[in-house]
Structures are given as C-alpha cells and as structure tokens.
Amino acid sequence: MGIKKTLLEDIAKELNVSKTLVSMVINGKGDAYGISKKTQEKVLAKAGEMEYTPNVFARALRTGKSHLIALLVADISNPFYSNIAKYVEKELASKGYNLMICSTDENVEREEKLISLFAEQHMIDGLIIATTNTSGEYFKKERLRNFPIVFIDRYLPDIESNYVVANNYQGSLEITELLIQKGCKNILALNITPSHISSLTERVKGYKDALKKHDISFKDENLLEISFDNIQNDVKEKLTKRLKQGQKIDAIYTLNNHIATACLNVFNEIGFDAKKEGVYFASFDNISLFDFVKPNIISVSQPLEQIGIEAANLALHLIDSKGMDASTFKKIVLPTSIISRD
Description:
12 strands; 434 Repressor (Amino-terminal Domain); six-stranded parallel beta sheet; 13 helices; Rossmann fold; about 15% strand; alpha/beta; elongated; 3 domains; single chain
C-alpha cells in the first residue's frame, strides 16, 4: 500500500483553518489577501512538516502557469541534443523554470502527439523543439498559433517563427572548401533522413555550392542518403559498395555525427585505413569522441551552449510577452567553426 499524499485539506485540518486560506498561502497570495505573517509562517511550516508537494499540473490549470517548459528533440542520445538540453535546463533553472525532455525519434506522429498532450492540455508554459514536420501547417492550429514556441536546430521555411539555429549552410560550405583546398575533388557526402529538414538541406546546399565555386562537377552517386532508422547497416551497405567502385574517393564528409560514428565502425569492420588510402574524413557536428579516434576527423563545431542559452531565454521572453506583435519574430543564426585535426 502506497504512502498517502498530503493534500491541502489535510494541512487545513491540522491547523483548524480553511482549505482556501492554505491554498492562498502556498500559492504566495497571503499578503494580497491580508493573511498575517504569523499565520503564513504556520501554514508553510506545517506544509513542510507534512511533506506537502504541490500538483504542478493542477496548479497550472488554476493559475495559468506551470513554470515548466518542454524540449522535444529528434534523439536525446545524440550528444548534439543532450548537450543543448543541459544548457537549456541550466538557464531555465536560474530563472525558476523546470525542463521536460522528450525524444520524437524523427517521427511526425509522435511529435504531434506529444505537443498535443503538453501544449494543448496546458501542461507547459512554452515549447522548444527540433521539429521533424515537413510543413508549418500543424503549428498554425488555433491552440498553437500564439503559444510560445522556439524552434532549434531546424525551422520550417513556410511559416514565420522564432528560432535559434547554427549557420548550417556556411559551416558546410567552409568544410567542403577546406577539403578542396587540400586537393580533394571527389568528395563523398553522406546525408541522413529525414533529408527535408532545414539544417540538412542547407548543409547539402553548402556542399554543392562549394563544389560549384571551385568548378567541380557534382555527381549524384557522391551523395548517399542514410536512413535514421537503420544508420549502422545502411552506412555499411552503401559506403562499402561506394568504396569498392572504381573511381577513387578523396574525402568522406558526413552531414551528421551519428553517421560519422557509423563510418568509424565500418572502417574498423572492413579494415579500411583512410590515412593509408589518402582519404580525408570530415563531419558536420563535433563530439568529444573525435579527439581520440583515427583517422583524424575535420569537423564543424556548433555553438551548443549559446544555442541552449538563447533558446531558453527566447522561450521565457515569449512566455512573458503573451500578445506580442507577431511581426517581431526573432530569428537567431549563430556562426559555426572548423576544427581541423591534421
């Protein structure tokens, strides 16, 4: 049999006061309703003694605020998202807010189900999201139209929105140019599904534009698409097949750190020595693992701490500015940097 949860009426009964009075004190409204300091102290002391824990969601329904923000990401196991989550949580905690984190697994139906549960049921005050959606139609729903939403990592080009992203295009352009400057002309790029999301389309564009800028023809067979649901096997099958083809590859450029890790596993499994073969290895995203593995990985580093802090503060700003002019959407694009481990 479970331990009985202390209710407001239990505290009221112990002190021989009304439940309403106890509720006013616990919700910080004692002064506003003229309740004496002595009485307030007694109520708070008794609540602590009886280990009273407020029901956050019930209070949210009463007060309109839960002081809870949800973070929806594609995959919390990805160091990119887990690090951003850490900085978001730290920033929100300093402002008296809590964070709830969920993974959508790049599944649109799961994403919409979670948003409906949290936002439409008044469980959260704001939402920070790396969306998988293909369009902004879902976010035009009446309930979500004025809801505080901040997009991170990706945004939806067909709707006006508040977002915090890295400059995916510039980062991809620069790392591809660096490979070209090292003499690479046949650069194999591995993208990941869902390839429609803005961060990936911009990385692909940066890669292609760098080739064009240096008069190198883009080849369809040099852009492999890897399934998010089957990364390791897909990389092994497609990369192994491409490496066995006649034309020599100068560089392998992965557009996501999960693919980079899968490539390292494949290299080890099939005995491929990138350095010996004269193949450069590059990745968009930078994770600590890259400092300790061979071959040396040239990577695009995103400002994860800044993304987290900016997203948290933008969400809080939207919560505090309900009814703000919709024309004041804030679009934050942060610079990336290249880490070369030659």
